[in-house]
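Quick start: read one record
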Amino acid sequence: MSSSLFISDLHLSEATAQIEQSLYRFLEEKGDVNRLFLLGDIFEAWIGDDDDSALANRFADAMKKLADRGTTIYFMRGNRDFLVGENYLKQFGAELLGDTAEVSVAGEPALLMHGDLLCTDDVDYMAFRALAHNPDWQAEMLAKTLSERREIATHLRALSKEAASNKAEDIMDVNQDTVATTVQDHQVTRLIHGHTHRPFDHKNVLSQGSGRRLVLGDWGALGWHIVADEGGLTLESFELSDL
């Protein structure tokens, strides 16, 4: 039976050892999986493919073992790990996806996104995103030393947390009109994303009462994932302490 897994928002760092090890055990226990889609914010921060941290090496080794068992791995950048590139992913044979990707899921076309592009009410974030995705800005950032980039990443995370604490909850969620327009523009009826940390299986996301939007949750006390197989498409969670 063909099966696919979708995961996002692990926010891995050296401070998330339990989440990291739970991920590896979870993937081991899942057994044969045809496709694994990593939909952004897998890392709390990414300073460039030349990162020599132990975490970067451990993750690459674990994904390489999974790929060697026959799983095809796809990686989509999030707002935390938008500097992940081909040089890192080729260590475990993963395919880099763009900001949107249309794939067949459980026999039907679906649109994959990290989810931040749907949060159009958060104008401050959208402005920063445009800056951070500018090739000149990225080139300037990657030209700095690893030590300098780590300091900048720490500073940016602190600013992000402070900004989030001062924003209304609905501003940081998706804009429903943006969702409907995005789904219609891509001519799909299924949308899978993360980013908002609000896991839910939304029905009837289109104006005519059709469509489905599945939102992945962030990993903490629970590990969230979506399973797609011949039986359909299901949002699931488990307690990390159970592994």
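The CA atoms of residues 79 and 234 lie 25 Å apart.
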